[in-house]
Amino acid sequence: MKIMKTKRSWGLLLGFIFAAIAMSGAMAQGHGHDRGNGHTKRGQGKQEYSHSGKSSLANRVYHITGADSVQKIKMKPVLDKATKRLEALRTSYRKQQKRVMDSLSVQLKPVLKEDQLKKLNDWHDRNKESSN
């Protein structure tokens, strides 16, 4: 019986983490809504998810689960590790995205006129700034 509860707890926790990843991914792309929780930044008419608060995932999980203080202490190491892993994924994604966009510019250079290439590069630079 205890094993089933542990598996269910881990499954529930992983579900929350995946939901948080999906939610933060959508918000980072500007599809999120400001719900007054302080996790969005406004800039140039766009909303994006702020990754500055390292405890934002933890706070979200604590809030969703209604964890008491003892549970929070027990959950903290797991949530800290998940937060670090998510940040590593975001960093890796940003590096891969930069490589793809740089490659795109190089490949389109022979096709585009100079002003078109400048527009593409300007757009890329604006998007790069908003994702940081």
Helical fraction equals over 70%
How many runs of DSSP E, i.e. beta strands?
Answer: 2
- Taken in chain order, the helices and strands follow as HEEHHH
Strand content: 5-15%
User: Span between N and C termini?
Assistant: 46 Å
User: How many domains?
Assistant: 1
What class, by secondary structure content? Answer: mainly alpha
Structure, explained:
The protein is mostly helical and 132 residues long. It is built from 4 helices and 2 strands, in the order αββααα. It has helices at 2-28, 56-65, 69-108, 114-130; strands spanning 40-43, 46-49. Strands 1-2 form a two-stranded antiparallel sheet. The longest helix is centred in the last third of the chain and has 40 residues, at 69-108. Residues 26-52 have low confidence and may be disordered.
Set down the secondary structure blueprint:
Elements lengths: L1 H27 L11 E4 L2 E4 L6 H10 L3 H40 L5 H17 L2
Antiparallel strand pairs: 1-2
Please sum up the structure shown:
The chain has helices spanning 2-28, 56-65, 69-108, 114-130, and strands at residues 40-43, 46-49. The protein has 132 residues and is mainly alpha-helical.
